[in-house]
C-alpha cells in the first residue's frame, strides 16, 4: 500500500486566513515572519512569506522547500537569483496592495489639506515610480483635479518619453510621492535615489510622501531638509525607526499603507492560486463565503464643499490618525501594531449616500465608492 505523505506549508502568521485558505493543501504551520529561520523551514515543502522574512541561501540551503510564495509586492527581502539557481519556484503577488497604498496617500493628503486649509486641486503631484501603485495614485489624483508629473525612467526607456518627466522636473511638484521598489544595483537603482543633492532642490513649501520603502529617501539628509510636510509610512531600519523623523513628520505610520483588508486578502488569494497550479491541485474557494460583510453605508449631509465632504467620507472608512498615534508616542509599538492592524476596507467596498453636492458625487464615483440613493 502506498503511503500518502502530507505536504507541509509554513506561512507567516500575518497572512490572513492562512489555515482557511491553504488548509486543504497540506499541514499548515504558522510563525511570525521574523521568526521563520533555517530550522523552521527544514522539513517544509511550501514557504509563504510577507516582507519580514529574508529568503536566501542562509534560510533555505538545508531545506526541501520547493515553493516560495510572497503575499506582498516588495522584493528586496527575496534572493530571486538563489531561488532560480536552486530550481525553487517563486511567485509574488504583484499589484495586490496597490489600491490600498494609493488610497492611503490620497487620504493622507486630504487630511493635510484640511488641516492646513488648502485646496488639493490647486496642487501638483510628482509621482516617482509609476507602476501598479503610481498608476492608481495618478488616476485618483486626476479625479481630484490634481496635475501630475510622472517620473519612471525604466518605463520611459521601454515606452518612450512621452508622458514622463525627469526626476528633477518631478521634484518641482508641490507634492512628491515615491513609489519605486528599493533596489541596490543597475542603472535605475533606487537606494538613496532622493539623496542630499536631490533634497537640496526642494523648498519649504513642498510635501514629501514615502509609502514605498525606507532607504529610497536618504533619511539622514531628509532630517536636514525643511519641508511643509513629511508623510512617512516607510522607514530606514524598521522597526527601529528614527524618533527625530517621527517628530518632523506631519503623519507617521508603521508601514501599513498596503494593509487594507482587500489587499491582504488579494495577496493570500493570488499565492494560493499559484500554489494550486504548481501542485496541480483544484482550487477550493468556499472560504470566500465566510468573509466579513460590507461595512454599512456612509451618509454625507450638507458638505460645505467637495473636499470637506470627501474628508468626512474618508475618515469614516479609516481613521489614519490612529495609525499615527499608535506609534508616535510609542515607536516600539511599530511591529506589534502592524501585526495586529485594525481592519479597514477599500473604497470600492464602501457605499456612500450623498445629498445635493454633485461635484462630490462625481468625485466619489471616480474614486470607485458605491453611490446609493
Ligand atoms: N507601504 C506599503 O505598504 C507598500 C505597499 C506596496 C508596495 N510598497 C512598495 O512600493 C513599491 C512599488 O509598488 P508597485 O506595486 O507600484 O510596484 P511596481 O513594480 O508595479 O512599480 C514600480 C515602478 O517603479 C519604477 N521604477 C523603478 N526604478 C525607478 C527609478 N529609479 N525611478 C523611477 N521609477 C522607477 C518601475 O519602472 C515601476 O514602474 C514596491 O516595490 C514596494 O517596495 C509599499
Ligand atoms: O511590499 C509590500 O507589498 C508592502 O510593503 C507590504 O505592505 C509589506 O507587508 P508586510 O509583510 O510588511 O506586512
UniProtKB/TrEMBL annotation:
The keyword Oxidoreductase applies. The keyword Signal does not apply. InterPro entries: D-iso_2-hydroxyacid_DH_PdxB, D-isomer_2_OHA_DH_cat_dom, D-isomer_DH_NAD-bd, Erythronate-4-P_DHase, NAD(P)-bd_dom_sf, PdxB_dimer_sf. Residues 15-278 form the D-isomer specific 2-hydroxyacid dehydrogenase catalytic domain. Its EC number is 1.1.1.290. Substrate binds at residue 51. This is Erythronate-4-phosphate dehydrogenase. It comes from Thiomicrorhabdus marina. The lineage of its organism: Bacteria, Pseudomonadati, Pseudomonadota, Gammaproteobacteria, Thiotrichales. The gene is pdxB.
